[in-house]
Amino acid sequence: MRFAKGDKFVCAECFDDEGIQQFINANASERTCSFCDRTEDDEIAAEWGEVVDYIDTCLAREYEGPEDGVGRDMRARQGGMRGFLLMDTWDLFGDLGFGNRSDKVFEDLVDEFIDRQWVQADPYGSRPCDYWRYSWEAFSRQVKHEMRFVFFKVKTQDDYGP
Q1: 9, 36 in Cβ contact below 8 A?
Q2: What is the pLDDT of residue 130?
Q3: Please, which contacts does 43-48 make with residues 24 or more away whose CB atoms are closer than 8 Å?
Q4: How large is the C-alpha radius of gyration of the chain?
Q5: Measured distance CA(30)–CA(139) in Å, rounded
Q6: How far apart are CA 140 and CA 94, in angstroms?
Q7: Backbone phi and psi for residue 22, each to the nearest 5 degrees, phi listed first
Q8: Distance (Å, rounded) from C-alpha 116 to C-alpha 112?
Q9: What SS3 class is residue 95?
Q10: Distance CA 140, CA 125 (A)
Q11: Alpha carbon distance 33, 82 (integer Å)
Q12: How far apart are CA 60 and CA 5, in angstroms?
């Protein structure tokens, strides 16, 4: 675990993300949530550090630090970034919807990653949404210009006889 263990526990209801909810439910070890004060007879909350570690692992699939693979434009002042969306933790987590259910969870989560900046991992490659956009464009082009009128003849009883 990269993040410190503590005495805070968080329940699945404090997040909107289904993957995080599943992780919390699978790793629940406490009956009370430290953030929303919900208490149940069964274990409902996972240890905060484990959840943050899981989120960090998931983020690493899609985002990285700007120093990890993005080319630098040396003509820019002090080796600045050109052409890439550089986000701070506050903006990234807001875009991902981590603050939709609980401001306290959002603020504590941002505090765990506060000194980091983020860019899309492999910014030179295609994003998953690009695949769907290109597929739709290819389908649209085929329907509009190549196979606009398709008539499948349904065989009747008369078509089978002599």
Answers
A1: no
A2: 76
A3: 44/11, 44/12, 45/9, 45/10, 45/11, 46/9, 46/10, 46/11, 47/5, 47/6, 47/8, 47/9, 48/6, 48/8, 48/9, 48/10, 48/108
A4: 25
A5: 50
A6: 34
A7: -65, -40
A8: 9
A9: helix
A10: 24
A11: 43
A12: 21
Using CA atoms, how far residue 8 sits from 26, 29, 49, 154, in Å, is 17, 11, 8, 66
Cα separation, 88 vs 60, whole angstroms? 15
| pLDDT tens digits along 55-99 | 999 998 888 887 776 555 533 444 444 556 788 898 888 888 876
Q: Report the alpha-carbon distance of residue 2 to residue 67 in Å, rounded.
A: 20
Task: Read off the pLDDT of residues 25-58 as tens digits, 9 standing for 90 and up.
Answer: 999 999 999 999 888 999 999 999 999 999 999 9
Distance CA 72, CA 76 (A): 8
| H-helix segments, the chain | 18-26, 48-62, 89-96, 103-112, 128-141, 157-160
Check if the beta carbon of residue 11 is closer than 8 Å to that of residue 38: yes
Q: Quick check: 23 and 51 in contact, CB under 8 A?
A: yes
Instruction: Compute, in degrees rounded to 10, the torsion defined by CA atoms 20, 45, 95, 131.
Output: 0
Averaged confidence pLDDT in the chain: 79
